[in-house]
């Protein structure tokens, strides 16, 4: 097996094992720990800490430890959250949620950096377009990774209440530690570089906001957090648990994860034929239809298939937001992709925090109207970005460059998610 592909599979299956443990717990938080809002509070703390982490930890850890050991260390942070759920209380879940959030940004940044370097490395050897190889690697990753929701929720549903997640996180750490090769970009050129200071790292993320396209993409990026937060925090609690019982939450989320996994690979493949604007329009229409259906629908056990169909369609649209928004960031901000992906993680996490933050105070229909409003604003600002791109590069659709592979700049801050 080609060496780079082996490493991509190791990373992908490592994330699969890790999020088989974490994903099932996340889906059940709002329902399992509903007393005094502990479950929603723990998820809010996770994403608040993730925002803080994305500002300064990823570049420092990746430069100090390299991608491999940053991934290993960050995975250990996720294991602490699983341990905290064994004896759930405010004294165990809140601290472990904070630890998980602090490890989240370095984990995803290191993964993204690793896949980018590996894709460019193979592209240079094979004489291929770096952008295409990197996209293929991300397609493989998301196909395997998104299926973690299927296995995690299946386990939590079959052995609910029996601490079902005590082993797969440890297996993920062992797999990456033993089988993943260390990887570095332009190591010789960067030997003399000093680790970036806190101030320089912090400001780099916000300096990217001088680009008006980045500012216009904030609503689209935050919408990713809003829509995922609604499904995980509100749909599972207000629709599934209330009408069917908590034991159905895992099975319902399996439909979301399965549709998301399959469509992530599909949309990654067909985007080269349809273009990203068509896919974004499709995602908006699908979520609009789901939101309207949720506003009009009165949940009842008699409508059992609907409980599974809606999250499946929600997952189809979410696959578009995840694959195409990441690709859009990579295309638009190729020279500053590290700072751009830091902004991606920052604003998406803020969307999660807001969604979880108002979850215990607002009624469900108000939350749906908020998600709908953010979706409309996101699509307007996204179309504005496409218009600006078409004006700035009329002969180059989507501002892509077919000649040059995507490069990982040794001087840039490695904070992409």
Describe, in plain words, how this protein is organized in 3D:
With 417 residues, this protein is mostly helical. It has helices at residues 3-32, 38-86, 90-126, 130-146, 148-158, 168-179, 198-207, 212-216, 218-243, 249-274, 276-296, 304-332, 337-357, 364-392. Helix 1 (3-32) crosses helix 9 (218-243). The protein is globular, with a radius of gyration of 20 Å. The two termini are 27 Å apart. 53% of the residues are buried. The model is unreliable at 187-192 and 395-417 (pLDDT under 50).
List its traits:
417 residues; mainly alpha; 14 helices; 77% helix; globular
Q: Total number of helical segments?
A: 14
Unreliable spans are 187-192, 395-417
Q: What percent of residues adopt helix (DSSP H or I)? A: over 70%
Q: How much strand content do the residues show?
A: under 5%
End-to-end Cα distance: 27 Å
H/E series: HHHHHHHHHHHHHH
Structural class: mainly alpha
Write the layout of secondary structure elements.
Layout: H1 3-32, H2 38-86, H3 90-126, H4 130-146, H5 148-158, H6 168-179, H7 198-207, H8 212-216, H9 218-243, H10 249-274, H11 276-296, H12 304-332, H13 337-357, H14 364-392
Helix pairs in contact: 1-2, 1-3, 1-4, 1-5, 1-6, 1-9, 2-3, 2-6, 2-13, 3-4, 4-10, 5-10, 7-13, 9-12, 9-13, 9-14, 10-11, 10-12, 11-12, 11-14, 12-13
């Amino acid at each position: 097996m080609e060496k780079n592909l082996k490493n991509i599979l190791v990373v992908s299956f490592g994330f699969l094992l890790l999020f088989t443990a974490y994903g099932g717990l996340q889906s059940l938080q709002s329902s399992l720990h509903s007393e005094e809002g502990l479950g929603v509070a723990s998820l809010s703390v996770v994403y608040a800490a993730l925002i803080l982490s994305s500002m300064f930890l990823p570049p420092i850890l990746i430069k100090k430890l390299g991608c491999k050991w940053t991934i290993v260390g960050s995975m250990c942070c996720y294991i602490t959250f699983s341990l905290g759920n064994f004896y759930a209380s405010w004294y165990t879940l809140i601290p472990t949620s904070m630890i998980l959030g602090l490890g989240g940004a370095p984990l995803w940044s290191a993964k993204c950096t690793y896949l980018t370097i590996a894709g460019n490395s193979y592209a240079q050897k094979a004489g291929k377009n770096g952008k295409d190889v990197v996209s293929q690697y991300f397609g493989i990753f998301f196909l395997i990774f998104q299926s973690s929701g299927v296995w995690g929720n299946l386990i939590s549903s079959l052995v609910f209440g029996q601490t079902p997640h005590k082993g797969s996180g440890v297996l993920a750490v062992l797999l990456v530690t033993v089988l993943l090769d260390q990887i570095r970009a332009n190591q010789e050129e960067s030997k003399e570089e000093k680790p970036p200071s806190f101030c320089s790292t912090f400001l780099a993320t916000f300096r990217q906001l001088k680009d008006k396209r980045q500012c216009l993409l904030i609503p689209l990026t935050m919408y990713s957090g809003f829509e995922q937060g609604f499904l995980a925090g509100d749909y599972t609690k207000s629709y599934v648990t209330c009408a069917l019982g908590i034991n159905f939450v895992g099975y319902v989320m399996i439909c979301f994860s399965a549709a998301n996994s399959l469509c992530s690979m599909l949309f990654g493949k067909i985007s080269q034929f349809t273009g990203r604007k068509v896919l974004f329009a499709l995602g908006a229409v699908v979520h609009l239809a789901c939101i309207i259906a949720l506003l009009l629908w009165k949940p009842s056990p008699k409508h059992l298939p609907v409980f599974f169909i809606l999250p499946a369609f929600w997952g189809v649209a979410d696959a578009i937001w995840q694959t195409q928004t990441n690709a859009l960031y990579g295309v638009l901000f190729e020279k500053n992709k590290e700072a751009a992906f830091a902004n991606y993680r920052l604003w998406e996490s803020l969307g999660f925090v807001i969604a979880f933050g108002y979850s215990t105070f607002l009624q469900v229909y108000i939350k749906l109207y908020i998600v709908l409003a953010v979706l409309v604003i996101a699509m307007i600002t996204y179309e504005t970005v496409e218009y600006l791109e078409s004006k700035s590069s009329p002969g180059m659709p989507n501002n892509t460059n077919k000649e040059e592979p995507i490069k990982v700049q040794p001087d840039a801050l490695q904070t992409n998610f």
